[in-house]
Give the backbone structure.
Amino acid sequence: MSFFTIKDQNSLILSIKLTPNAKKTSIIGVSCDDKYGHFIKISVTTIPEKGKANKDLIAFLSKTLKIAKSNFEIISGMTDRYKKIMIIGDVEYIEEKLKRLK
């Protein structure tokens, strides 16, 4: 089971389902469906207005993975709950951090 794909040697692309306007910001778990495959379920407390939820998602991932916010880019799903987020950096380091989230 993989909720990320390796784009190249310097980046990973995460599949995420974001739940905005939640009671707390947290990783809910890993899930799967027929349309989107495997993805990480994450909730944030902010509302999905003017990119606030996306901004908080990036801030949460940055803090959780200890990777600079500037290394994250939403490459699809800006206005959708299902997102693809590219993380630029040392792929082995990122993979190790992601394994600890499970």
